[in-house]
Write a structure and sequence with these properties.
Number of helices of chain A: 17
Largest sheet of chain A: 6 strands, mixed
Strand content of chain A: 15-25%
Radius of gyration of chain B: 22 Å
Shape of chain B: globular
Number of helices of chain B: 16
Radius of gyration of chain A: 24 Å
Largest interface: A-B, 37 and 24 residues
Oligomer: heterodimer
Distance between the termini of chain B: 17 Å
Order of helices and strands of chain B: HHHHHHHHHHHHHHHH
Largest sheet of chain B: none
Helix content of chain B: over 70%
């Protein structure tokens, strides 16, 4: 049988970047095919070529044995290829039905098209186990269901090959499992799915075959049954890697960061953090797990002094914190922001200029009112060599560094100020495996040196690997707290979902304090 | 290192070649229009360039106009560096003229070297004061600076008209302007200054304030690129979220740059009034505040580029008036059209030639043996 999707010698350059090097791969019909690789390995470029966002410089795309010329997403849809993007392309205040027919209304009048679509969607829902409340506005649906709407959109347009780009980034582990069951069902009905991800666990869980990409080229293609996460990681990175973080048991000291009844409201006055209390002690790493968007970001920003909490207290080493990010840095609180490019670095600045962000008024970098450029440059060079940032060029623009090297520089900058407390959000987001290993080792070393570390991450593996104690946030409250030794992915997943219910119909109405689900095991809270 | 050299090369190409190509395109289109109205584009270009640079007198006038544009260009650029679009340089210059003018009118027989610092301070303070209220509204109330500065141009215009018609007008005169400043307050002209060291140049309004403008450009460069305040300004302009993260107070930066921006625009009358008109007249900035936007845009907000772009626009004004004098079909409006085309190609259509230029560079590199 012809492969459902076959790529032959796809080559693509963006200026001096060779994003895809003669990529060939073949996806059998009725299979789930994984494409795995680090950030910048060329996965997204490849899929964007298949879906018509980019044109390949050379090479051929064949669907069911027929060469197709894909110049736009319309062509891709015409060829039976559908795509579910990492960031959903949905109109929030439209109903599910309206979202699905958007762009495929089938005529100038909405009525008849909607009627036909309803019948069709109900059939699709039954056939594939993809039931969704059709008349509910999308904004009222939990993320897992929103993703289902995206899948329905693709199927409604006749997709036979479904590309999913990092589909689990916004899901709890349970939601991810549901997605995988759905994919299995689609596969059994003869559909083909391509799963683009950097998570080894997902490939092992659902894919039949996997293609590993590195630096734009395919380095391996194999049956998942015949491989292991370790082998896949090695192929992705090109050398053996340590998947587990090596660390000794924590010996926590005095309480350094204390948060009491913190409430944070967003600009519209909606409470995003609702009365959160916890403490972090010297020489321990406390991890906050949770699905993105459950108040962790707002908590982080309030702790760092970027927003003022509406209620509650924050204490640093026993003293109340001052307002303002600058003052808190002075009090020994360093902050690595969740989104490096949005907040942690200035894209157009050099590495050296980025190396003083937040510390630019410290005397070591100044000469009267003037910036001491020699000192700034040499301090950056020192941080670069201490943190193995490559290439070691302080004058190079920060964007010309890889994500991992950018992040190392941000961490170096914050840790160089010898903080008592480090709050760090998504320390390894958009960072390659090699650098993840390095960053994790450094964070553990920092803990052993007596720093109190608060880690916020949506990557459960990271939380489990680094934390000594774990808090779970859901709906703006802490829905669980436990010692690392008591934590399992399943347990955390249930708490991340809020109250352990599998799926609440409305993400908003279920936002009360999750009652009886308090975990039995309380950690050694300060 | 070679990679760094290459990125430097890209930077230079974009800083120098791109504006040149844009300018050329603007001139080509202008030529077509000149042709359509029945004149010879080559002759027009020769007249334009000859008028601006062909004689000592032409150069003097070109640089005299350029002085105004340097001040307003710097004003716009400083604000833009912090991510703010100051459309109010016109009004700030106008009110700055009130400050400088009052000092000159009150100077009595004080020597010039005492008048000048006082006039500079007054011009800067008045200009800054006119920017203060929009800055305050932006920082504290979130009112958009573009809207408020435009409105303040109108308020400045109305206020100055009222003052000139009702308060400052020379008694017994019909035209709404003050009495002439005493000669002791006049800026020494270039021919004066150079004459003292034995160099003879044509008598033009070009005066000492040209050097003040260049010094201001150097000062702005040092402030923005070399001091910690400049660092805070650039961080705020490039990435407001990162500024917040770094603990930089956005309202402080807003005040700092808007006051500075107003002060720079407020210095325009040092040239226009103290250098040439020697009185406060109605609407003396004559649109220089708006030309400053184009100058800053074309110069990518870099002081060195601002000086160059200001000379270009000065040349357009000076060469343009020669052109309209010598070519019957080309009037002043036509010169405004040419200015508009330069602004359009150098500012609005900035990206038009960016990618073709990059592709061209790629070809050139590809043709070379690796």
């Amino acid at each position: 049988m012809d492969p459902a999707l076959e790529l032959r010698g796809i080559d693509k350059r963006f200026g001096s970047v060779h994003a895809n090097r003669a990529v060939s791969l073949s996806v059998g019909p009725g299979t789930v095919h994984g494409i795995i690789g680090e950030n910048g390995a060329g996965k997204s470029t490849l899929m964007n070529i298949v879906y018509g966002f980019h044109r390949a410089d050379s090479g051929e795309v064949r669907v069911h044995g027929r060469a197709v010329d894909i110049r736009s997403p319309q062509d891709a849809i015409g060829a039976g290829i559908g795509m579910v993007h990492q960031h959903f392309m949905l109109v929030e205040n439209f109903t599910v039905l309206e979202n699905v027919v958007l762009g495929a209304e089938g005529g100038p009048l909405l009525g008849p098209g909607l009627g036909l679509a309803r019948a069709e969607l109900e059939k699709l829902g039954r056939d594939y186990g993809l039931e969704v409340p059709l008349d509910e506005p999308v904004e009222h649906l939990p993320v897992g269901l929103q993703q289902r709407v995206e899948i329905l959109k693709a199927l409604y347009r006749g997709a036979d090959v479904l590309i999913l780009d990092e589909p689990t980034a916004v899901l709890t582990p349970q939601e991810a499992d549901q997605l995988f069951r759905m994919l299995a069902r689609l596969r059994n009905q003869g559909k083909t799915a391509i799963l683009v991800t950097h998570k080894l666990r997902e490939i092992m869980a659902i894919a039949d075959r996997v293609t590993v990409m590195r630096q734009g080229a395919v380095v391996a293609e194999m049956e998942t049954a015949n491989t292991s996460p370790r082998e896949l990681a090695e192929k992705m990175v090109g050398r053996p890697v340590l998947l587990d973080v090596q660390k000794s048991a924590a010996r926590p000291g005095a309480t350094l960061l204390e948060v009491a009844d913190l409430e944070v409201r967003d600009r519209r006055g909606v409470a995003r953090v609702k009365g959160v209390s916890f403490a972090v002690r010297a020489a321990e790493i406390v991890g906050i797990a949770g699905v993105a968007g459950n108040g962790q970001s707002e908590l982080l920003e309030a702790l760092a002094g970027l927003t003022a909490p509406s209620l509650g207290k924050i204490r640093l080493a026993g003293a109340e914190v001052s307002a303002g990010a600058r003052e808190r840095r002075g009090q020994g609180l360093a902050h690595v922001p969740e989104d490096r490019l949005k907040m942690g670095v200035i894209a157009s600045f050099s590495a050296a200029d980025n190396g003083i962000l937040g510390y630019h008024d410290r005397s070591e970098y100044l000469w009267g009112p003037f910036l001491n450029r020699g000192a700034i440059r040499s301090s950056c060079a020192r941080k670069m060599s201490e943190w193995d940032v490559r290439p070691q060029q302080p004058d190079r623009r920060i964007l010309a560094f890889s994500g991992g090297n950018q992040q190392k520089l941000v961490l170096a900058r914050e840790i160089d100020s010898r903080p008592q407390v480090l709050i760090v959000g998504q320390p390894t987001r958009g960072v390659d495996i090699g650098a993840i290993e390095f960053i994790h080792r450094r964070l553990v070393a920092l803990r052993d040196a007596g720093v109190a570390i608060l880690l916020i991450s949506v990557e459960l593996e990271e939380i489990l690997g680094l934390s000594d104690r774990i808090l779970v946030m859901a709906g703006g409250v802490i829905s669980g707290e436990m010692d690392r030794s008591e934590a399992t992915e399943e347990r955390l997943g249930l708490m991340m979902a809020g109250i352990g219910r599998e799926e609440s119909r409305s993400g908003k109405s279920g936002a009360g304090r999750p009652g009886g689900a308090t975990p039995s095991g309380k950690g050694p809270a300060g | 290192m070679s990679e760094r050299a290459e990125s430097q090369g890209v930077k230079w190409a974009e800083l120098l070649v791109l504006p040149a190509v844009n300018l050329l395109a603007a001139l080509v289109v202008s030529g077509v229009i000149v042709r359509i109205i029945g004149e010879n584009p080559w002759t027009a270009l020769k007249l334009l360039l000859g008028g601006a640079f062909g004689s000592g007198e032409g150069i003097g006038y070109t640089l005299y106009y350029a002085t105004n544009f340097i001040f307003t260009g710097l004003s716009v650029a400083v604000a833009y560096k912090a991510g703010m679009f100051n459309i109010g340089a016109e009004g700030q210059a106008y009110i700055g003229g009130l400050g400088a003018g009052l000092v000159c009118l009150a100077a009595g027989s004080a020597p010039f070297w005492e008048v000048l610092p006082a006039a500079i301070c007054a011009a800067a303070v008045f200009g800054a004061a006119w920017a203060f209220i929009p800055a305050w509204l932006q920082a504290k109330r979130g009112s958009h600076i573009v809207i408020t500065t435009i409105m303040f141009n109108f308020i400045a215009s109305a206020l100055m008209t009222w003052l000139l018609v009702n308060v400052l007008i020379q008694p017994g005169q019909q035209s709404p302007e003050t009495r002439q400043f005493g000669p002791n307050t006049w800026q020494p002209t270039a021919s004066d200054l150079l004459g003292r060291v034995g160099i003879h140049v044509a008598a033009t309004p070009l005066n000492l304030s040209f050097l003040i403008a260049l010094a201001a450009a150097a000062g702005v460069w040092a402030l923005v690129w070399r001091t910690r305040w400049g660092y805070a300004i650039r961080v705020t302009g490039e990435n407001p979220a990162a500024a917040l993260y770094a603990g930089i107070s956005p309202s402080k930066v807003t005040f700092l740059v808007m006051l500075l921006s107003g002060a720079l625009a407020g210095c325009l009358p040092l040239n226009e009034l103290m250098g040439s008109q020697h009185l406060i007249s109605l609407d003396f900035p004559a649109g220089a505040g708006f030309v400053g936007i184009a100058v800053a845009l074309m110069a990518r907000n870099h002081p060195a580029g601002i000086c160059a772009a200001a000379v270009l626009f000065g040349a357009l004004v000076q060469g343009g008036s020669e052109l309209s004098f010598d070519m019957p079909h080309v009037n002043r409006d036509m010169v405004v059209v040419i200015q508009g085309l330069v602004i359009l190609f150098c500012g609005g259509l900035d990206n038009l030639f960016k990618n073709p230029l990059r592709i061209l560079r790629g070809w050139v590199r590809g043709a070379r043996p690796r």
